[in-house]
Design a protein that fits this description.
Distance between the termini: 85 Å
Number of strands: 37
Strand order of the largest sheet: 24-25-26-27-36-33-32-29-30
Shape: globular
Radius of gyration: 29 Å
Amino acid sequence: MERPTMSNIASLRAQVTDLTILIIPYSHSDWAWTYTRAWHEERYTLVFNEVLDILRDHPEYRWFFDTENEQLAPFRRRCPERMEELKQRVREGKIGVSGGTVTNPHPHRIGGETFIRNLVLGRRYFQRAFPGADLSVLTLNDIIVGYTQLPQLIRKAGYRAYRFWRPEEAMDAKGLPRTFHWEGLDGTTLLCSRGSYGGLHSTRWVRDTWEETFEQVIQTEILPRSRLDPSHVIGVFQGSDDARPLRTGNEQPLPLFELVQEWNRRGMGAMRFATPAEYVRELEKEADHLPTLSGPLDTVGWSYWYGQIGNESLREGRVKDDIALVQAEILSRIGAAMEMAVPSADIEALWWDLLRTCPHATLWLFEEDYEELLRVSKRVGFEARAISQTILEDMADRISLKSEGKPILVFNPLSWARQDVASVHLTFPMRGKRSLEVRTPDGHLLPHQMVAEPYENGTLKEADLWFPTDVPAVGYRTFYVTDHEFPPTSTPFHGDPSRLENEALRLSFEEGHLISIFDKGTKTEHIARGKGGANTLRFYVIEDTGPYHYGPVKDIVEPVVEHVEIVADGPIFSTLRTSGHLGDHGVVQDVTLHHTLQRIDLRTEIQCAGGDGFFRVHFPLSYPGRLSAHIPFGVEDRDVTREPYGSLERRRENVFYASEWVDYSDGQKGLTLIGALGVQGFHFDPDHRILSHTLLKAIRHPQQDWERFETRRREAKGKHVFHYALIPHRGDWRDGDIARMGTAFHRPLRTVPRVRWSRDGDLP
């Protein structure tokens, strides 16, 4: 490389002298990339100790950490004798806490309430443990930026600014500035900065002379950051994954003190160490001149990781636990107001446990570490559901009986009244009951549908019962199940395997393939003919490419249907079942048409044989329309034709994310796809108008290098079951009331039979 000339140095100096360069040291806790949790805990303890040692000799140094779970907790357990010293450095502003969260998750990969608790509980802990800490800046490193409700949520939590990284290349390709105000859905604005934490992390900038060194720093570190930055404050977040202070990733020393000293001494401009809070204070001086961006900053996430691990994934468990904990909180407050004996389980402690399963890099957890977190996730869900069940059972037992028969309490956990279908499991310890009726307290007879397990004499032993109902917001209604004198007259299922139909919809099948969804009200055929039908499951075989597992598609395996039958046909719903295989993978699919709801329930069971690839269900659409995607507490537009693909996070084209549902509408009519809970990955082919949903991703277990120690659950072998749904509707998602209907699908009515034999009670 040629040595820089004086004129070259002068030219470079002219580009940076009016900039304030802030070096912001950081060690990113990339748990569990390449190492066990035990290694990470020892590493972070080492890092904290080295930072404290450096600050004793160099008070001008700065450093920050971000989480309690991944970073602070290991140090606190191993070095309690240095906690006071750490607190002192935080009070002095030499060590930053940014943003003082419990953990460092991808916002779009956890429940909305979980994201809020991460901020609220984390800040509460750090305010108590580190009095005087500046918690004004939220940093979420190595994560996807998140959705357009974040400005409101982050500001309401008490932060003034947000620093994030991904997807850097895609945002650069779209020309998005590196510092800006982000306007959320409600109009709230949030000061933002974006960029990686990998600055000055190697010795590639260190040269034989300071002139050469300055040129390297300017060319590789400053100018790339300043080109899209409208401010004069350049934050170089210095460090790397699990980095020791003042060292490269392979332990070589970095002359950062010398760089800062020589930069300032030689008149290159202003350079110093800083924390994120100090960086934002400088940035706020120029806040009036920064642009404002509105709408989603990213709609893709990590395009090739959706569906990984399937039913045993932490991703699915987190969302289920979020729902269960919210319902436990609601019912606990109702129970306390009704002077019930509310279970003593600490719900806040359960939120903490849930958050401990949410670090951003858990897809690479080693075997034992994954199993430990999976046990935590399952325990959280179990305890939360047990709290709710106990309170509902107490409520049911306090019902004052107003009719003959067995009372059934039906509870609605949502904040609006809803018409839905309730289901309950009943047992009959004595032989003799042949049929049942469902009635309201005033004796009104309701239609119902039953699947029963009989005694040897044909009378009922156990039964699942479905019936339509309407229930008030965050309230309950009581229904009564009574004996019916005569057994039901219809025995075998008599449905036509080529058609399911109700007053509003007609579904047509051809050899088990769903080829038509016709909406009688809007006179709309939603499914395009000749494209394989709706809900068609395909397996995409990929050529694996190392630890990111995003390889190109080599083959697409089409389904083979071997058997078609009607397995349910009654006044509440009818179900057609197909079974067959996708190559080596067994498949069973149910299509259920409700007769009292405008909804088509879909169930896909995959008996996965492993391999490298992913499973998608496809929905070819018959008319042009626009996509809208549910996010926590809101809805965003989706347009894959306007997104740049090809960068690290976006190797799979035309992929986008939605939290719970996607709507496709032309403004006059539409079709909503409610996704499988926690899966979130969707794909849209704009040329052929095919919407698809990724259900499961399988990875052949690596046999060498560090990945051989990772959880084998990523192979996804065995049985996986996915529940999702379609809702045809008028107008767009607003006209179709999709926000409520989509939320209700994964939060069904809770039903509890009264078990007390006494007829006394103080509840209506």
